[in-house]
Amino acid sequence: MKKHIQIILLGPPGCGKGTQAQKLISEFGFVQLSTGDMLRAAIRMGTEIGIQAKAIIDKGELVSDEIVIGIVRERIFSKECERGYMLDGFPRTLVQAKKLNQILSDRNQKIDVVIRLSVPDEMLIRRIAGRRFHAKSGRSYNIEFSPPKIEGKDDITGDNLVQREDDKEEIVESRLKTYYELTEPLVGYYREKGILKEIDGTGSPGNIYSEIKHTLNEVPV
Ligand code: AMP
User: Fold this and answer.
1) Whose CA is nearest to atom 19 of ligand 1?
2) What is the DSSP string of 55-84?
3) Are 80 and 177 in contact (CB under 8 A)?
4) Angle at which helices 48-59 and 35-45 pack, to 10 degrees?
5) Residue 59 CA, ligand 1 centroid: distance in Å
6) Is ligand 1 within 6 A of the CB of residue 89?
7) What integer pLDDT is reported at residue 137 of this predicted model?
8) Which of 21, 83, 124, 220 has the smallest number of Cβ neighbours within 10 A?
């Protein structure tokens, strides 16, 4: 596999980006840059950005391009990302994708591969409805597909698991609508650049992971 690799994980909410990112982190130590996680951290810390972002996230809409580009730019050129990274949940609009392209090419860098996980809507909705998290660590479970050992409790700490406010049914519909309107056009954008790899996201997490690794191994060095 290419030594320093820059990856984008692309797909609708519930497509399995987060699960696959976790696997890539534990096997290869990739740095994951999840704009959703960064915004949730900003909300927890009560920063100015967090305060602005909360109302928007709770409605299932997108935070402004300016804000997310700002938070990604801060991290992408940091020391921890020198050996490559995996973007999860960013870019989500064409404006973000073009801006990313520009800030990377200004430093002679580029995205190596965009992995798109496709999953039909009915499955996305079922997966999201069952998602539960351990708030402190971000460990995730699914009450239907990968339940914790004790109902409602984190396997490691025993803390209560929580459901994300925006994973509740009424908000999920709005998130999916936003995805198709604003994020799906990125598929064409990256296909034209010749770096899009489409992977069926409906199989078992293990099989999907094997396909992702296969794809990453094919990235030219
Ligand atoms: P996620 O955890 O990736 O599902 O993101 C949760 C929420 O954070 C989204 O529904 C958006 O409101 C916001 N968000 C995350 N990433 C972005 C982004 N790249 N652009 C705009 N809003 C974002």
Assistant:
1) 90
2) HHHHHT-PPPHHHHHHHHHHHHTSGGGTTE
3) no
4) 120
5) 11
6) yes
7) 86
8) 220
Ligand 1 in reach of 63 Cβ (< 6 A): yes
Phi, psi (rounded to 5 degrees) for 6 = -110, 115
Please indicate whether residue 175, judged by its CB atom, sits closer than 6 Å to ligand 1: yes
Contact 10, 187 (CB under 8 A): yes
From ligand 1's centre to the CA of 175, what distance in Å? 9
CA 56 to centroid of ligand 1, rounded, Å: 9
Nearest one of 203, 205, 131 to 169, comparing CA atoms: 131
Sign for the CA dihedral angle at 54, 60, 61, 65 comes to positive
The DSSP call for residue 31 is P
Active site residues: 17, 92, 131, 164, 175
Separation of alpha carbons 105 and 96, rounded Å: 14
Which residue minimizes the CA distance to atom 8 of ligand 1? Answer: 36
Q: State if pTM tops 0.85.
A: yes
Q: Give per-residue pLDDT as tens, 101-139.
A: 999 999 999 999 999 999 999 999 999 999 999 988 888
Tens of pLDDT, residue by residue over 64-86, are 999 999 999 989 999 999 888 99
Please report which helix (H) or strand (E) contains residue 192, including its range. helix 185-193
Q: How far is the CA of 220 from the centre of ligand 1 (A)?
A: 30
- Whether residue 111 contacts residue 7, with contact meaning beta carbons closer than 8 Å, is answered with yes
